[in-house]
Amino acid sequence: xxxxxxxxxxxxxxxxxxxxxxxxxxxxxxxxxxxxxxxxxxxxxxxxxxxxxxxxxxx
Length: 59
Known about the structure:
- It is a single chain.
- 64% of the residues lie in helices and 0% in strands.
- By secondary structure, it is mainly α.
- The longest helix is centred in the last third of the chain and has 20 residues, at 32-51.
- The mean pLDDT is 90.
């Protein structure tokens, strides 16, 4: 993914600057999966309640 971003930036004439996150922000990376799962549950709540049988088991 990083290479794709670098390639796109080069084509656009932009620069990518890498930064180091503070320790407080680094700790949020571990929560990313939980945050994504929560958002997905919220987004798919209607479908699950009304059409749950049509959703795949992993979903």
